[in-house]
Design goal:
6 strands; 7 helices; four-stranded antiparallel β-sheet; DUF2884 family protein; alpha+beta; single chain
């Protein structure tokens, strides 16, 4: 389903943003907790996405964190994303190293021990949000594959389309709730961003997250009745499409089998 598949794509965007050139959000004065481990993906697609995300996590931990560009977080609403920051091409390239150095155009900005600690906290919070998005991406990819499998199995198990849809919706609701949790991280992130900007003038031009960003994320993740109805309709349509494709494939397989069993035609005399 399009909405579920978007989770994976957006999470990957979030991880690439934090790794290579798109960041923009801070965090609380306390060190953020590492996202809790989730159940291992059960589908081939989920495992492939998990492998890609594992590589992205390594980059997050070991590479410089860019302060130029935007951060995109899935909000659970029709695959929409909350966008934080501005893609201002006029600003010099700025990064935070794994050791807490602030680099502008490759040159290290002089900082006090306290400022370095704040830079490291900022970096850790951004990584925590990106990793949370990656977990959602893996879950979304796994659910997308499972949805197609459930639709195919439903043809032979006697499950109705409504039963299949309800099962998929229940799991999708859990993923949406996880996406909403990311929005809850944003107020303390902005607070830390503002503190860092007040302490370190060189960082200030890159601190562009606002309360409007947080409000938009919360609003989108909560959704409304109209959106919920639209999401249910989309899920049902995706199930129908999967069922139709499964039927077509079964018919094609029968035709192929019948053709393989037919004896070779004898030439006419």
């Amino acid at each position: 389903m399009n909405t579920i598949r978007t989770f994976a794509c957006t999470a990957l965007l979030a991880s690439l943003a934090a790794c290579g050139g798109n960041d923009r959000s801070a965090s609380s004065a306390s060190t953020p907790s590492t996202p809790s481990a989730t159940t291992a993906p059960s589908s081939t697609l989920g495992r492939i996405v998990e492998e890609n995300m594992a590589e992205a996590r390594k980059k997050l931990a070991t590479e410089n964190l860019s302060l130029n560009g935007k951060v995109l977080i899935n909000t659970g609403k029709d695959g929409d994303t909350a966008i934080f920051g501005k893609d201002d091409g006029t600003l010099p390239k700025a990064e935070i190293s794994p050791k807490g150095d602030l680099l502008i155009e490759g040159k290290t900005v002089a900082t006090t021990p306290e400022q370095r600690a704040m830079l490291l906290q900022y970096r850790q919070h951004v990584i925590a949000v990106a990793e949370g998005g990656m977990e959602i991406g893996v879950q979304g990819a796994d659910l997308a594959a499972k949805a197609l499998g459930e639709a195919a199995k439903g043809l032979f198990s006697g499950k109705s389309e409504e039963e299949i849809t309800q099962s998929i919706e229940a799991e999708a609701a859990g993923i949406k709730a996880a996406a909403a949790k990311l929005c809850e991280r944003l107020p303390p992130m902005m607070e830390a961003q503002q503190k860092l900007a007040a302490s370190l003038p060189e960082f200030k031009p890159y601190a562009t997250m606002t309360k409007d960003d947080i409000d938009d994320c919360m609003k989108n993740s909560e959704g409304d009745g109209k959106h919920a109805a639209g999401l249910r309709s989309e899920v049902r349509e995706e199930v129908r499409n999967a069922v139709r494709e499964s039927v077509r494939e079964e018919v094609r397989q029968v035709v192929r089998n019948d053709g393989a069993q037919e004896p070779d035609a004898k030439p006419a005399h």
